[in-house]
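Here's what a typical entry looks like (glutathione peroxidase):
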Amino acid sequence: MQSSSASSSYTTHYQLRLMAVKDLAESTINDNTIAFFSKSWCPYCKAAKALFKEKYPDTQIKIVELDETEGGDDLQSYLADKTGQRSVPNVFINKKHVGGNDKIQALQKQGELIKLINPKA
């Protein structure tokens, strides 16, 4: 006779999907100097991407377009739980959550963005 607790060890499709989303987010954040979670149509994302492309063209950046990625909505929800920020862009630099376009632009104007990207500079 099988006990009812046996079913508690069964991993559901939903749980697997959430684990995959977490793995994608965390590996993107941990494996890249800049992890940039975006939506392809977002004007704020475009502005922040343009800044990075112009000012830091040689910096390793991984852009994940949430609207073009399978499970993008789940990924955005995971990031919201992780950071408290639901909006895009959602940017991490050297594994540290920085925020969105307004924060990126302000840090650039203050001369602080380069210090986050290259702490030894």
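Confidence is low (pLDDT under 50) at residues 1-7.

More examples are in the samples folder.
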